[in-house]
Design goal:
- The chain has about 110 residues and is mainly α.
- It has a domain at about 80-109.
- It is built from 4 helices and no strands.
- Helix 3 (about 80-90) packs antiparallel against helix 4.
Amino acid sequence: MASSYRPASSSSSRFAPPDSGLSAHPKPSSGPQASSINQYSHVFLPIPPPSQSPIPNPHFPTTPTHIHHALICFLYHPVSVCLTVCLSVCLFVYLSICLSCWLACLSIA
């Protein structure tokens, strides 16, 4: 039995070869030099000069190191330590002891 399948010839192909210029997104014809400049122009961004002023800008928020330092100072402050102890007392002991503990902490401040 002879097979009736015949491969399609390259001239009757419904797809154009990749280098024929018939792609779905044609490149602009502005020349090879202009296209290479446009292609890589986003890579070279200007770098602003560093600020020479020793005074920090007041419009910028506080850096995390300053926030962290303030948080550590607050956590080791005697009033906050007292309030933390009172909170643990409040969780495990009677409410009257809790209130007197809070009042004692507020009198320290």
